[in-house]
Amino acid sequence: MKTPDNLKSLLLLCAALLLMHFSSAQELELKSNGYGEKNLKKFPRKVYIKEFNVNFQMTADAKAVSKTTTNSRKGSSSASMNVAVTGIDAPDLQQITNTVYNDFVNAFKSQGFEVLTVNDIGDLKYFEEYELMGANINEDQNPGYLKVTPEGFQYYVKGISNSGKEKQVVGAPMRLLKEMDDVMVLTADYTFSAIDLNASQSSVLGTSSVKGNIGLKMPSCVLNAWAGKMIAINYTPKKMPEFEGVFENEGEKLKAFSMATKPTYSGFLTHSSNDFTHEAKCDKDKYVATTTGTMKEFNNQALSEMFGYFNK
C-alpha cells in the first residue's frame, strides 16, 4: 500500500522532532540563580504569565566605509551586505510560538496550577499607566528580528517609543507582586539568530569589507519567576546552543570587499563599492523541529525544577 505524500511529510516531521528532543536533552544544560525558592511550597498554585516572546532573526545587514589619502592612493571605498533568511515565513514562526506556549501552559495545568491571563487579573493600579498590547508579529523591537507572541495572548507595556519599540520594566515587579496576593509572576523570552556579520575598514589601505557566517544559534533564552517579597528564580542555558544542518548554505563564508585604487596624482577622490545580496536558505522542517524542540526542552528542564519546589 502506497503511503500518501502528506502522511510521509508528517512522519518525517515527527521523526525530526523526536531526534531534536533527544539531541537537545543530551546537550542543553541549564543554570539557575535566585533566592527563596524553597518557600514556593507555601504559595498558591497560581501563575500569571506576564510576557512570552520568541525573537527570530530574519535579516541582517552591515556596511563598511573607508577613506584614505595615503602616498599610494587617494579615495574611498565601501562594502555592504544584506542577508535574508528564506524557506520559512511569518505564519510558520507564529505556529512555532503557539505550539511552545500551549505546551508551556499545559505543563502548569498538569501540576494543578491556575494560569491567569490579562483578563483574569482585573484592573490593577500597577498597570494604570501601561498600554495593553495584543498578540502580533512585531518587527520594530530589534533590527532584523521578528518578535512573535502567541495568538490570543495579551500583555502590558510601559509605553511605545517613536520608533515603535516597546518599553518594559526590567527586574522584579514588586508592586505587581504585592497587588496579586502571592500569585507567581513569570516572563519568558527566547531568541534565535541565523546570521553573523562583521564590518571592518582600514584608512591606511583604503579597504572596506564585510564578512558573514550562516548558522542557527540561540544567543538568549531567559525564564524569570517571582513570588511574594523574597522569591526570585532565573533560568538560562549554561552555554549558547548552536545547531547544525538547518541551513543549506550553512558554513558558507560570505564576503564583500572593496579598495580605493585611484593613484594620488589624479587629484580626484574616487569611490569604489561592492554590494552583495545573500540568502540564508533554511530547511523549513528542520528549522521548525529545532526551534520548537529546543524551547520545549529548556522549558521542561526549568519547570521540572520549579515544580519540585512546590511539591516538597
From TrEMBL:
What keyword terms does UniProt attach to this protein? Answer: Signal
Establish whether keyword Signal is in the entry.
yes
Specify the signal sequence span: 1-25
**Protein name from the UniProt record:** GLPGLI family protein
Q: Which organism does this record belong to?
A: Ekhidna lutea
Q: Taxonomic lineage of this organism?
A: Bacteria, Pseudomonadati, Bacteroidota, Cytophagia, Cytophagales
